[in-house]
Amino acid sequence: MPSASDQDLHPFDQATRVVVENGNRFGATSDHYWAFVGPFGGATAATILQAVLTHGERSGEALALTVNYCAPVRRGRFGIDVRLVRANRSSQHWSVDLVQEAEDGSGQEVVATATAITAERRPSFAHQVATMPDVVPSSEVKPLVMDGFSGWTRQYDFRFVSGLPRFRDPTDAALADPRSELWLSDHRPRRIDMLSLAAMADAFFGRIFHVRGGMVPFGTVSMTTYFHIDAAELAAENTTELLGVADAQVFSRSYGDQTAQLWTPSGRLVATSQQITYFKA
Amino acid sequence: MPSASDQDLHPFDQATRVVVENGNRFGATSDHYWAFVGPFGGATAATILQAVLTHGERSGEALALTVNYCAPVRRGRFGIDVRLVRANRSSQHWSVDLVQEAEDGSGQEVVATATAITAERRPSFAHQVATMPDVVPSSEVKPLVMDGFSGWTRQYDFRFVSGLPRFRDPTDAALADPRSELWLSDHRPRRIDMLSLAAMADAFFGRIFHVRGGMVPFGTVSMTTYFHIDAAELAAENTTELLGVADAQVFSRSYGDQTAQLWTPSGRLVATSQQITYFKA
Q1: Which of A97, A136, A172, A179 is the most buried (most CB within 10 A)?
Q2: C-alpha pair distances (Å), B44 with each of B67, B93, B251, B260
Q3: Do B79 and B99 form a contact (C-beta atoms < 8 A)?
Q4: What is this model's ipTM?
């Protein structure tokens, strides 16, 4: 029987929970964050980051995270092999493999690999070059109705300021702009933390859906996120929402890119991300 | 005595050469591509990509490369441990460690880690969203005079179209735009190939030098490059130069980002890249 505290746990905290048994780390997929053929990649990324941040040897703040999605993660438990590869005076380099038992019982296979960097964030020259889009506050935007959807998309409120996905007439050959601006928040409100950044960097619909005005087979192959704020500064922002800006530069030979920015309501650029995606179209 | 073919070898091919001995892969730093405290990160990235692309089990094209620079690579030889982590129907996931003997003789230590993805590039829907900057051809731009510089910067011709680095009056507090547009080519002409893309994605001066108008201690911590063309298509472009566009979004707490695009003269976006950089300022 789940304990009362388990029931109170936010679905995102449940999805990104890491347990340690005999020195080995494990996570488990969450049906709340299920996507087409596996868990939402943002939940996987956040779980990997959690495994690094809760590691006993970790010092410093999350600076960079690259996750390579090698194969669909199957429902259930997975191992998270975390290796501190190199530590310097001010930074640590981590390599992570996500592993599951092979379906044919032939042993463990890698379903995702990742590298992460944690670093001391010392006071320095500061300069925000990018400017936050001048958008209306989230309170003035209705969330997208996700009733027709299932899984992970129901765990977020998507308040599109621009670049709402539209399902076009299939005879219309015109392509739309891949760029979207939207307020992102957990459907059940939760204060944004470093794990939220790792997950929300992936919480955009495939840019190819926007461009073509329809769904096609699609998946993230690799995602890299840089963190431009530390945990204490982010906690001080005390927000449950971020402005996300997603865009794409090119689609070619079955792969396309995506770029993303995450902004606090106060106007601070807290994470930037890019991913390479597979599509069939 | 170096053989005639060694002397004829382009410095970039020499710098990125991978030799195999008893199944183990090795590279070596090149004085031609030396930077402040170690080799030019682009040469290291290209050498890692070379080790993957020349691996006997490799199939498919370079799609994504992330290199984490853990510590300065010392002059001389280094091991390149290449591991095929997972192969699917259409893609392969690689993990790479660059290793050198510790200076204190305590054994091998990791100086860089990397992940790479190779993939079949099948015909598909194609759409180039980004537009190439409307710039003058390289023939109309004089290369930056690199006489005051040494090492890797002398291996390239940098023809700035915009965003030329300027050394400002230290009493001038105004910050400059981090964006640069420049034609990039090997100083000794060499046809652009996938290795060039991996290297040239890093062949930009630190954006913080541009913003502040002066040099500060600086280094790339991690770089991720996506390839939007395959080797045969790139060979067919038959070019020795690329237009590079570099920019930055934010500098905060000792770290800043850099984004880059590489364009062929024919107007094709062939690689996009981002990196997180350390600075002391």
Answers
A1: A97
A2: 9, 19, 25, 18
A3: yes
A4: 0.96
Pair A48, A75: CB distance under 8 Å? no
What's the sign of the alpha-carbon dihedral A241, A211, A220, A153?
positive
| CB atoms closer than 10 angstroms to residue A264 | 19
Which token pair is A93?
Answer: 């380099």
Task: Output the DSSP codes for A187-228.
Answer: SS-----HHHHHHHTT-S--HHHHHHTS---EEEEEEEEEE-
User: Residues of A129-145 as b/e, b for ≥16 C-beta within 10 angstroms?
Assistant: beebeebeebeebeebe
A14-62 confidence digits (pLDDT tens): 999 999 999 999 999 999 999 988 999 999 999 999 999 999 999 999 9
Structure tokens at B72: 């300065």
How large is the C-alpha radius of gyration of chain A?
A: 19
Q: Rounded to the nearest 5°, which phi and psi values hold at B121? A: -105, 95
Confirm if B46 and A69 have CB atoms less than 8 A apart: no
**Residues paired with B108 in a beta bridge:** B101
Tokens for B39, please give them.
Answer: 């080799």
B229: chain A residues, CB-CB within 8 Å? 252
All residues of chain A having their beta carbon less than 8 Å from the beta carbon of residue B224 are: 66, 222, 224, 274
Rounded to whole angstroms, the Cα distance separating A22 from A45 reads 23
Instruction: Residue B189: count other Cβ atoms within 10 Å of its Cβ.
Output: 10
Touching B: A residues 104-123, CB under 8 Å = 109-111, 113, 115, 117, 119-123
- Which stretch of DSSP H or E encloses residue A77? strand A77-87
* DSSP-assigned states of every residue in B150-166: -GGGGGEEEEEEE----
| pTM recorded for the entire structure | 0.96
* Residue B31 near residue B184, CB atoms below 8 Å: no
Note whether A269 contacts B: Cβ–Cβ < 8 A.
yes
